[in-house]
Structure formats: C-alpha cells, structure tokens
What does this fold into?
Amino acid sequence: MSEYSDNDYRNRCSEKTLQTNSVGFFMDFVEVVKQSVGQTWIQKKFGKLKSDSERIRAVYTADETKEIGLNILSNVQEVYRKKDATVSQLKRLEAETAFEQNDLNKSLIFYSQSVMRAPGTGQCSSFDSGLSLSLALWGRCKVLMGLKQYSLALNDVQLALKERLPNVFKAEAYWKMGVCYKALREDKKSKVAFDLAEKLMDKKEKIEELEKSRKENVETAMTNMEKVLPNVEDKNNKEFPCASKKLSVKSTDQLGRFIVANESIKTGETLVVEPPYVACLLPEMFGTHCHSCFTRLQAPVACPDCSNVAFCNTICRDEALSTYHKYECKYLDLLIGSGMSVLSHSALRIITQQNLQNCLEIYKNKQKEKFFSLCTNSNKRNGEDFLQRTLMAAFLLRCLQKCGYFNTPGNNVVPTEEEFLIGEYLLFNLQMLQFNAHEIFEQLTTQDYNLKMSKLSYIGVALYPTVALFNHDCYPAVTRYFVGKYIVIKSLRPLAPNEIVAENYGPICSRKELKDRQRILSSRYWFQCECNACTYNWPQIGRGMDDLSQQIRCPTENCSNIFTLPVSSNPLNCPKCKNLVNLDERIRLFKYCEEQYKIGFNLMQSQQIDKAVGVFYEALDTFHNVSCPPHKETHLAQEALQICLASYGNVSNTLKEIK
It folds into this structure.
C-alpha cells in the first residue's frame, strides 16, 4: 500500500464513476439494498463470487436481494422531455419579435428552441394547424439568411417544405432557395429554384424583385474553418491500424501492457488518429453540441419524439435514430435523473449502438475483441464496489428491457438467458471504462481566437482501444487533442527506440506536487506511479524548479552522464564514459533552445500558430538531445505547444474576455 493512499477518497472516486450527480436516485437505490442485505453478506457472500455472470444473476436470484431488487427495478418507466406545441409557438413569437428588432442572434436562439419543441407535422392540429415545425424552420431560415449562413438556411427551407410549409409561403421559399444556391455557387440549382418561384408568383412587382435577386451577388459569412484530421506518420501498423508503425505493445507483470517506440520518434510526430469505440456527450452539453458528432450547434435539428437532444443536421439525426437513440430516447430523463455518470451512459451506449444479435455475437466472441482485454482491476475490487456496479448494470438492463431492445414488451423484470448475457456485458463495461475512457475536450477562446486566453472545456467521454494502452507518466511523452470525436496523439518530446511512450492521466509534474499526484493516481486509477518525476521528486514551477541548476548531457554517444553547470570551459573527463569531452557546443545549444522558446511564445501570442509549432518542435528536439528535464522554460514551452496543437482540433470562440 502506498504511503499516499487514501481509501476514503478512492471509494468516493469509484462511486463518482457510477453516479456523478449527487441528487440522483441511483446511490439511494444502492443504499437501500446495502441496508437490506448487510455488510456481512456483501463481503462474505457477494464479494466471494468469481464472475460477472454470478454477480448479475445474484441480484435477481439471491434470497437477500431478489425481493427488494425486483421491486425497485419494476418501477423503471419512460421519462423524457416531450414535444410541446404551446412552447414551440411561444418561442416562435419571441423569435419574430427579436427579428423585427433586428436582433438576429437572439431571434436564432428562440427559433431554434421553437424547432426543438415543435411536434411533428399534423401531431397537434389545435396549434398552428399542426404545422408548428414547418413554421419554426421557415422563420429560422429567414434569420439564417440575415446572418448570411446560406448553407444552414438552405437546410431549413428544404426541411420546412418537407414538413408541409403552407402554400402561401412556397413561392418565397423557392426564391430563398435560389438565393442560397447562388451564394453556395450552385448556379444550375439556383436557376431551377428561381424558375419555380416565378411560376408560383402572381404579383408583377414580386417578379421584378425576384429578377433583381437573380442578378445580385450574394456574399456569405465567414465560418469556422473545418478541422482536418492529420495523417499518421509511418502508418501500416499491422496490430493497430490507427497507429504509427513506430509503436508496439509490450507487457510486464509490474506495468501490464504498455506502448513503446520501435524506432526514434521526433517531437510533433502524429502517432495515433483513432475514432472512438463508443462516445457519449455530457448532459450539460445536450443543448450546445450535436448529440452524434459533438460539433457546436448553430441551427439544431431535433429528434422527432423527444426534446432532450439536438443534432447538427439530418445525417447525424438519422444515424442516431437508426442506432442508439431509438432505444435511449424515451428514457434519457430517467437516466439523467438517476444521477448516473457519463461513464455509465457509455456502458449502456456500447450496447445500444449495436443491435441485439451483433451485441451477443461480440460478447460470445470477446476473445477476438481488443477492448475486452483492457484493464478492469477486477482482482482489486471489494464486494461493495462490485455490488454498486452490478446494481447499475441491473438498472441499465431494465431500461433495455423496457425500451424494446430485446424485441419484447419488457413486462418481466427477471432476465432471460440472452438478457443475462447483456447484463454481464454491461457489468464488464462499467469496470473497464473506469480506467480506460478519455474525456473529449474543445478549446474555448475569445472572439478573436486569442490562445493566450484559452482554456479547455470537457464535452464528452469516449473509449479509444489503442490509446487506452498508453501508460501514464507525470512527464508525458505525448499530448492529445480532438477533432470531433476522433483523438489525435502527437509526440511532445523526442523518444528513443524501446522507450515507453506514455501519456498523462491528469496530474502533471510541473504543476502538482508528488503527494497530490500520487493521491490522485492511486485513488482514481489504482496504481502507484514510479516515473522519473515521482522517483526523483521533481520540483514544480514556482516551487523550486526555478532554482534548479542547468544540466548538460555528456556528448559521448550512449553515455548517460549528466553534467551540472557551471563547468570549466576546458575539456574535462566524463566520470562515466571516461572520455575527454568539451561541453561548449552543447551549452550553446542549450541557450539557443531557451531563445527559441521565447520566439515560439511570441509567435503564439501573435497567432502565427503554424510557425510557433515548428519552432517548438525543433527547440524541444534539440533540448532533449543536449539536456534533460526538469527545466522550467522547457515545461512552459511544452505547455504552450499543447495549447497550439489543441487549436488544430475542436475550438469554440465562445469564451468571454475578462476586462
């Protein structure tokens, strides 16, 4: 047991991976069961069970749990935010008022709320003649055109027509389509739309206005540049298709499985570009990000049944409706109300994103799936931890029964054999995700994209089976950023062959003291870190690192000796390799690196990001060749490089500048 271990904190961390929200009902469910069965049964009987199969079955069959468990699980029912034509109409009227006042951004917000709450066409004929959705889309189209967002406006007018836009608006609708197509440089489609509009018009003066529109040039608003996924250098890794062939996996009893370098790696190499095996958006981001692809919403498209989630376009919506959302839709408020964590939601999503037969096939052949070999730490779990996770698996399984995942009405709480297998699958997911999931973030900047003011905002959680194999180091070898839901791993410093390629799980050596890092890692991830920063207790910036003497590597190849400055300018004998060496050139390069860091910082502040990145790459390579950490300026340069690289991924200029 580590001297930094904190069992109470560890238990709280573990519980938080099941239920994040303190006001949710799930942990109350757990407490009721615990009080009923008692600690002796939990530790002596349930805690002694050997497999997930035994554990999930015990909830339903053990004399101590079956009555109370079945009674509580039988209460699971649909709870979701339904459509409301009254709210939709009210929001649309507010949007029209804002539009008349020329407050287009405020109008867009209200129209989007109207779109989200509008029932499907014809579902509520007592409001807007059942046309609430088409009217909301039609109004938002006009706002988007005012904002010169012609691609989004075109989507809305097309959707409005599909939703039976009243005939009185159709001539104008095709007219607006003509303008949008013209702005998007689709001249043939623009002509067809204008011609249709002209045929439907009955007023001469309107036709004259339309003819002006045909001839006018249309300027589009500047939009955020679409982020591009980088290419992996030296791809064709046979074992891991998403990774560079410079990486491979090794395994030891002490470290488990981990990634090492097969050959030399330079700073800035793209080592992995991986899509998620599963990804879930944080509930607090449901109104700001696409539920499917995680991009920022501008003109959201709604689910036809619930008002809980939003999508950036119909492609994302239809993909979600054909897979996971058709099962989760009417139970989302129940799931959120339980207080369950996004990791628990991810455990469910691994199931709902596949149909039943595919899930059963995957689980029955799990030895072929890489993610089933990821760490669960099941051998370190106690009976209480297993009971909490098993009850969560049972709750999620009951939701699957009720939502029709098993193609039955879900009247029976006690699972069938097929359902028990899915319960086992859920229980495995709840253990595995605790130690292998990654938080997806976007970089928030001010309106002028000032990176100096930027900060990271977490928007979701995902599992990346390749990246999950990277071990932790308090002085990491790589950094990560996200493009949509894809994770990009880049080297943060040069690496030699056979060197461990480690990332960072949160506590960084330059900012957190040893005791804090060890407490976090042992409590959240259940291991004691033995990286160099921990072994030698490196000081932090502002707490001793500033006062460290400069260090220079021996210039003799393969010699590991480090000289501490100052030293004589004359040649001197290395105590390790015994060679006579001169350090002048290495000292010069050391000072050159510090100068280059300053240049990189200045380039970053002037938003010349590509140039700054190039300067940091070269300087960091040089530094690690002639010196070694800890070194304040190098740590700061790496922090700056991480900020620069994050700007190549998810970015939103929604951060308010504090004046």
